[in-house]
Backbone:
């Protein structure tokens, strides 16, 4: 799917609906004017459209705010796409606290840094064969297999409080019992 600049997007809608510039302006609710629409379609864009213009263009084109803004950015020569290959959608994240969102961002950055290290070293096997990388702690003792963890892995952990309830749950599991609460 082609990602048009703003002039192309507007010209396509105008042509598809058979509108004059004034008719398109009326469909926008009067903002932008027919003269401004002519400029947006036929002249190089010099600045981002103002919010009222974006809202008007939404009415006439049926495009979302994001589509209008991204098309305007492309018109200004910015290299943007509708989807970011590095973006990760986490359903419900808008309901999380600021500290929760920051924790997820920190974890994401750590994972990206680790992936970049692996890519730079050629492979994860090569790095492990060399005894790990500087600044990393390996191993989890009796808890499980060795893994490479960032130095601040404890700060990234979701829970740092008492763990007696976890020990009791493990004991119950070993006996085949379930918690009563």
Residues:
């Amino acid at each position: 799917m082609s990602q048009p600049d703003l002039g192309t997007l507007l010209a396509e809608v105008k042509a598809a609906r058979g509108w004059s510039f004034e008719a398109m302006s009326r469909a926008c609710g009067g903002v932008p004017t027919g003269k401004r629409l002519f400029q947006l379609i036929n002249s190089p864009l010099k600045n981002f459209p103002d919010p009222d213009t974006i809202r008007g263009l939404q009415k006439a084109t049926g495009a979302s705010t994001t589509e209008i803004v991204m098309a305007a950015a492309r018109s200004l020569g910015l290299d943007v796409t509708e989807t970011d290959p590095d973006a990760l959608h986490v359903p419900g994240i808008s309901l999380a606290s600021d500290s929760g969102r920051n924790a997820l961002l920190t974890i994401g950055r750590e994972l990206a840094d680790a992936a970049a290290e692996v890519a730079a070293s050629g492979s994860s096997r090569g790095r492990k064969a060399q005894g790990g990388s500087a600044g990393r702690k390996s191993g989890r003792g009796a808890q499980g297999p060795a893994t490479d963890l960032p130095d601040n892995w404890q700060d990234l952990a979701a829970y740092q409080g008492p763990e007696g309830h976890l020990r009791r749950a493990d004991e119950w599991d070993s006996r085949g019992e379930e918690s009563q609460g």
